[in-house]
UniProtKB/TrEMBL annotation, chain A:
Keywords, sorted A to Z: DNA-binding, Nucleus, Transcription, Transcription regulation
Localization of this protein: Nucleus
One term of GO molecular function: DNA binding
Name of the protein in its database record: BHLH domain-containing protein
BHLH domain mapped to chain residues: 185-235
Primary localisation category: nucleus
Pfam families recorded: HLH
Region (Disordered): 150-171
Superkingdom per UniProt: Eukaryota
Any Gene Ontology CC annotation: nucleus
UniProt-listed InterPro entries: bHLH_dom (IPR011598), bHLH_ZIP_TF (IPR024097), HLH_DNA-bd_sf (IPR036638)
TrEMBL record, chain B:
Keywords tagged on the record: Nucleus, Transcription, Transcription regulation
CDD domains, per the entry: bHLH_AtIBH1_like
InterPro entries xref list: bHLH_AtIBH1-like, IBH1-like, IBH1_N
Domain (IBH1-like N-terminal) ranges: 24-83
A Pfam family the protein falls into: IBH1_N
Compositionally biased intervals (Low complexity): 83-95
Native source species: Brassica carinata (Ethiopian mustard)
Protein name: IBH1-like N-terminal domain-containing protein
Compartments (UniProt record): Nucleus
Upper lineage: Eukaryota, Viridiplantae, Streptophyta, Embryophyta, Tracheophyta
GO CC annotation: nucleus
Spans annotated as Disordered: 83-111
GO biological process, one term: regulation of DNA-templated transcription
Amino acid sequence: MMMNGGEATEAELFLNCDDMSVLERQRVQLNYHQYHHPGFEPTLPCFFPNSSKMNVGEVDSFLPSAGLDLPEIYGELHGDARISVSPGNITTEFGNSKKRKFGCVDTETKVCNEKKKMMMMMDREVAVEEEEEEKSKVTEQCTRSIMKMKNKAKKEQNSCSNDSSKVTKDSQRTDYIHVRARRGQATDSHSIAERARREKISGRMKFLQDLVPGCEKITGKAGMLDEIINYVQSLQRQVEFLSMKLATVSPRLDFNIDDIFSKEVVSAPMMNLPNTVMPPHMMVNSGYPHDMVNSGYVHFNPMQQVVTSSDPLSCFNNGQSATMWDSEVQNLYTV
Amino acid sequence: MERQTINKNKRVFSAEPTKLSPSEVFTRKYTSHLVPALKKLNMDKNSPQINQLTVKHEVDMALALSAQEFAWSRFLLEKLSSSNNPTTTISSSSNGTRIPERSCKEDEDGEIEEKLRELQKLLPGGEEMNVEEMLIEIGNYIKCLELQTSALKSIVQDTT
């Protein structure tokens, strides 16, 4: 079904056809609107990149694969049997709930464009603000929250498809946001964005600090990164070592999954130990095969700068509570 | 696909169907992937010695399959399935931590960037992510590695 002059009549024909399914009818309506309301198109650039090639059958395949990163919305759409987007003309047969969803989708794309306009306006605003700043630098009050609002809006413009609810909220606030930079700091949009990015990164680093044992004292970024690198490397080495052991042990395997599960569920939170190096003789007690211990751990320990849980069995035996890295696992204790 | 069916048959359900923490979920998934795979390895290969690399491959595969909600697991899965020869996930284990040169203070940022790059190398698929994503994924990766380690330990312990 090609989009040209004869299109409209064909569409009408479809609409009048009784034995057509409701879905097909709506598809046709959509094509119809697509053709007859060209102004409609720009607000949905992402959904219908190439309307001239649209067939009735292709509408459904277009929606998921249009390259739009709107997973949440697609989740809804898919659940509704691939109902095409046609905000202006939603038949009542589908009920109110679906209308609302379409409304969301439409606002989404509209908001996307609005946000772009907003950003341009904001840049101009910032330029104006800069001039004002220079005039009355000394007496200016610093408000960080407004800046954050702008950052948030900016970030969302960059990733506007990620979170629809946030975006719609922002658009409802204002058309443009005044920005006041902190005292003594640059006000151009690049450095603001840069600063926001840095703050995000340091937030992440803080989270990682909780995750990696023994990092509470370390303050610098570089030091933290060092610790993290070491920790990841040591974990990977441990996995390698254990799989080596598994390879030697596995011929004698008598897997009993229930046993394994029961042990794991109990012992998983006990994994993280304070950073102590276990002397080899302790491992002998814990019942490891001796040759494995000697060959495995003796060259293992010197390599590691951060040693964690190097002796699993003694940690199980002692029942040491971990320096916890995860509140969820803590819940495991209470269960 | 065979692996999936094997796992289906052998999946274990807890007696009390209460909510499971994500760690538990991961651990169970991991074990239910790995154990049958190892059994299969045992059964298939009549040779006395199971190849270490194959076991490592299975270990990594189980990790990737159990953590499919994370980006790095996709990369890991791709890496594992694309290469027929099992590869290790540790690319820099032989290198250790590089010591960056530090001529002046301005290099501090460069040092940090270098460390970030190194961290990216450790994470499967890390080089394709930007820094913020990578830091988030690293957190998940660390957690999953820890759980994997404990799972492996209990499997090993169980069989010795």
